[in-house]
Amino acid sequence: MSSVPVLMYSTPSCPYCRMAESLLRSKGVTPEQIRIDRDPQQRQVMTTRSHGRHTVPQIFIGEQHVGGYDDLAALDKKGLLDGLLRGKS
What we know:
Layout: E1 6-10, H1 15-26, E2 32-35, H2 40-49, E3 58-61, E4 64-67, H3 69-77, H4 81-85
InterPro entries: GLR_AS, Glutaredoxin, Glutaredoxin_subgr, GRX_bact, Thioredoxin-like_sf
Function: Has a glutathione-disulfide oxidoreductase activity in the presence of NADPH and glutathione reductase. Reduces low molecular weight disulfides and proteins.
GO biological process, one term: cellular response to oxidative stress
């Protein structure tokens, strides 16, 4: 479904990361994942890109910072996630 790239900063032990990935996969999207546990420098990149957030997941659809799993699920509940994934804000 996605016509825009989806990037998710994550760790393997994070249940919210798995829930976010599951929700995105249910939409036909496989997010690119950056594991901040494997590359500590990426944690700083994530924190900067997400305007100070330091928890995972942090999800970006295109260049737009969506937030974490709760934010992603709220967009889906409002019916806005599909449009974002198609590149329509």
